[in-house]
Predict the structure.
Amino acid sequence: MSDGQLVCSRAGCSSTATGAVEWRNPRIHDESKRKLWLACDDHVGYLRDYLAARDFPVRVIGLPEATA
């Protein structure tokens, strides 16, 4: 968004992100590669569970850590 707002990564969601889900696909990436999906309060659990169901290493982090 043009105002610098961080937006949730869930498809169709335009809510402000309040946290992030850090993950990696171990079949493709080594330990040093991490992906980051921003998440609003309503979707952080959904995004975490979606990735965990695929056996991806995943953790929820706060925005200060995600944007550092």
User: Anything to note?
Assistant: The radius of gyration is 12 Å. The chain has one domain: 19-66. The chain has a mean pLDDT of 92.
